[in-house]
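Let's study a protein:

___
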Amino acid sequence: MTSEPSVTRVGINAIGRRHQERSRDGDTGILIEGTSVRTANVTSERKRILTGIRPTGPLHLGHYAGALENWVKLQSEYDCYFLIADYQVSEYAHDLARVRNAVWEVTLDWLAAGLDPDSGSFVVESLVPEHAELTTWLAWVLPVGMLERNPTLKAEMEALEYPTDGKTKEKAVPVAFYIYPVMQVANILLPRANLVPVGADQLPHIELARETARRFNRAFKPIFPEPEALVGRVPRLVGTDGNAKMSKSRGNTIDLKDSAETVAKKVRTMYGGPPRRATEPGKVEENPIFAYLEAFDRDTARVRDLKEHYERKGVSNKELRNRLTSVLNELLEPMRQRRAKYEGNMPLVREALEHGTGRGRAIAKETMAMVRDALNLNYLR
């Protein structure tokens, strides 16, 4: 059992300063510790963070608002490990070329968003075999019932077996889907992470990691900290079709690498709430365009004014979409430029993965030596 960390306000270094004005209150997110909620803070010593993304394609605004914006701020204050979870994409087992390409897409998007491979470590999951080893040992202490109660796992399995978008073919649920939650716990515990920045839908995984750490520490030796969840400023961004979640599989995303023209086209066709005339008042909560403006428009006074006019006199969706297009392209243009720079120098991208994975493996070996000792598995010693 680890002791409670002391806390102070998060500072923003030069890397994160360009994003500072985007946060309403200067904080980096909401920290979920057990059932309590408090502002994320930084301790006097560098705590360790583990967070990651499955490589299924290019990243989108939902990833940025829910994760990347936060990661950029945290990378100078914490010892950060950013994981590309390529073990956890079994639904693309028939298309491994896509997964391989997505590893590079994710890395480029991370660099474009402002993640610095000198401040944090970019780790490819499958290149650190200790992830698989720890998954096996942790499976000893996790009952199946705990996995079956996980709402995220249940939803993902249901979506695989009974897709609702009318385009995706039904698939049998692979055994890997039951392994994923255990592997995600191993991802978190292997670097002995103190904090895990996640989307709101991933909170059950963090609680599972905390419970697993408690069980292992009680049964064997106190090796693992109980990780805490850090939810981004925008826990979830709706899709451009008005669906509750922006998702690559639904085709309702605005990608970080999209050109200015592509962004404009996607915003033009974006769902703007129930049909109404331009001069007819509407409800802000029914129009997803406002969710995007609240998330990305730095001129909060302008957004507030638009909302008031929308509800009192009406504002045309054309005006809202024009505003959003301008806001998004202002946000994405620096990312496009950084991405182009790295695309023109792929050896730098490879180096970021190689060095980060090396650092991740060094920590993994250290942890597994502790685990084997705790389990008394050093048979030949």
